[in-house]
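Narrative of accomplishments. A recurring question from our advisory board has been how the design workflow behaves on a single, concrete structure rather than in aggregate. To address it, we present the structure tokens for one chain from the evaluation set, followed by the sequence designed for it. No filtering or post-editing was applied between the two.
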């Protein structure tokens, strides 16, 4: 809806309301005045007629003639004659009715229609003396009535309503005509005035549309008035001038940005082969360097345990051809679980989970990646064996702790990596897989986060080489057979007894494990150790830790 019609909708109702209130007030004032005149006029005649009837009746009473019907009839005739004598117009009517509404006397012809007789009977029963509204012969009337007891008459002195209220109706009609004319004139004047006011706004809108359709920011609006609308037009011109200047700068910046995006895309395409995409994005966002950040995250090391055997007799190019599909399979599983491959160290892959983007389930992702790696190795080795090549044996170690992650190095050479003691422990755990004949080992800090999601086996409490503090180590499997699940449960019970120094019970549990899994290395080691402690108990300050002397 345009502004001019909004102005019409605001102003015209105010005009209508004012005129309507004035007209209604005039109508009711005139109606009230006419009603008073009618009441006084008809009341006067009714009073005169009542006085005359009472005077005639007193003559009968004084002469003891009330018992003579002919004299009473003559008196009624005299009253009727007096009633006719006070009639001043052809529209006046005086009539008397009995208690049933039947006409007893009338100065004119009376013919009831509809329920008129009943209405007069009701007035007679109420003996009303107020100004009343009745209908006689289908004609609306106003009148004054009184009850005359001697004749049992209810006398009504009336006049047609139109005789009194025609002028009032004329006032109402004229008011309506004036109101309609005023509305029409008001709408026209308001539209003209609104058009005058909104013309500059229309020009502003038209200019804006032209700018949008043509992208020509050189167009301006003519300032017509020195008022708020003129200020709006002037401000619009200033704004368009600013936009025109900004547009020129934006075009220059856009060209630079396009060049920068092309260069950035080429950098990503080239370096994504060496650095994970998330790291590249973080580096570009921070303009070449990601500051060191301390956070708790999971670190993984994976080794080829039979690397020395595989390399025997291979030329360098053959070794590279063997390692390339292996590393691809391992790296793909790490990426699929949201990890970041950090570096390749001869036969080892280092990866971490939880940077540069923090993730809440980094421990679970790392363990699942480790399991994926061992499972992916099965298919990889099948293809190697078909080609007559030696299979790869892998070890995976995972630890979780507080590390420093970020770009580390110099301006000439930087790596996005993690450092800290938890990294070293992950590397040591990868080496311990050969001791326990397990492909995957992880620390207690990882176990706390994954124990509700995956089947875990508590293998031992060890202090890795170079450390004196012990750590519980675990392994996990995605799918266990019924017998394997039973054996793992017995092993965990045995470790609990071992921890409580109940070496006899621990040895029994480990023996039960070997009944199910006869070749289980971990159960064999722990059973032998428990039996040794039964014969030669450790000292009271024994910390339950098995110190490792090799990596």
């Amino acid at each position: 809806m345009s502004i001019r019609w909004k102005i019409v909708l605001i102003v015209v109702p105010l005009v209508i309301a004012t005129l309507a209130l004035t007209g209604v007030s005039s109508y009711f004032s005139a109606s009230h005045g006419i009603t008073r005149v009618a009441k006084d006029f008809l009341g006067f005649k009714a009073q005169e007629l009542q006085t005359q009837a009472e005077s005639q009746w007193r003559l009968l009473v004084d002469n003891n003639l009330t018992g003579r019907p002919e004299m009473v009839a003559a008196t009624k005739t005299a009253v009727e004659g007096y009633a006719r004598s006070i009639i001043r117009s052809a529209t006046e009517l005086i009539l008397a009715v009995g208690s049933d509404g039947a006409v007893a006397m009338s100065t004119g012809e009376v013919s009831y229609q509809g329920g008129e007789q009943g209405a007069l009977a009701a007035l007679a029963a109420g003996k009303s003396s107020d100004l009343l509204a009745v209908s006689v012969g289908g004609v609306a009337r106003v009148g004054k009535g009184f009850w005359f007891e001697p004749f049992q008459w209810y006398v009504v002195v009336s006049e047609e309503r139109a005789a009194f209220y025609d002028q009032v109706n004329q006032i109402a009609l004229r008011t309506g005509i004036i109101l309609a004319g005023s509305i029409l004139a008001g709408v026209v004047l308001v539209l003209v005035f609104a058009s005058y006011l909104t013309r500059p706004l229309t020009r502003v809108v038209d200019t804006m549309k032209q700018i949008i359709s043509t992208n020509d920011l050189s167009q301006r609006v003519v300032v017509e008035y020195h008022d708020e609308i003129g200020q709006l037009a002037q401000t619009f011109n200033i704004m368009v001038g600013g936009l025109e200047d900004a547009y020129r700068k934006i075009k220059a910046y856009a060209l630079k940005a396009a060049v920068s995006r092309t260069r950035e895309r080429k950098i990503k395409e080239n370096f994504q082969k060496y650095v994970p995409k998330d790291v590249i994005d973080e580096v570009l966002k921070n303009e070449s360097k990601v500051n060191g950040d301390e956070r708790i995250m999971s670190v993984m090391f994976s080794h080829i345990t039979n690397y020395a055997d595989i390399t025997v007799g291979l030329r360098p190019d053959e070794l590279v051809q063997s390692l390339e599909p292996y590393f691809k399979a391992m790296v793909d599983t790490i990426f699929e679980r949201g990890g970041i491959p950090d570096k390749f160290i001869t036969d080892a892959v280092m990866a971490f989970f939880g940077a540069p983007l923090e993730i809440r389930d980094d421990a679970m992702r790392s363990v699942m990646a480790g399991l994926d790696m061992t499972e992916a190795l099965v298919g990889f080795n099948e293809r190697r064996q078909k080609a007559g090549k030696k299979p790869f044996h892998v070890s995976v170690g995972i630890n979780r702790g507080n590390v420093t992650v970020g770009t580390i190095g110099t301006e000439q050479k930087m790596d996005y990596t993690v450092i800290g003691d938890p990294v070293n422990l992950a590397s040591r755990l990868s080496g311990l897989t050969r001791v326990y004949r397990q492909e995957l080992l992880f620390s207690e800090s990882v176990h706390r986060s994954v124990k509700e999601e995956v089947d875990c086996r508590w293998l031992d409490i060890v202090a890795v080489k170079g450390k004196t503090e012990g750590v519980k180590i675990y392994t996990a499997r995605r799918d266990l057979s019924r017998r394997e699940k039973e054996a793992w449960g017995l092993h965990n019970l045995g470790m609990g007894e071992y921890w409580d120094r109940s070496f006899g019970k621990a040895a029994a549990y480990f023996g039960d494990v070997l009944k199910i899994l006869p070749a289980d290395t971990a159960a064999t080691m722990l059973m032998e150790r428990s039996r040794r402690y039964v014969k030669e108990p450790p000292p009271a300050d024994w910390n339950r830790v098995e110190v490792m002397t090799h990596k």
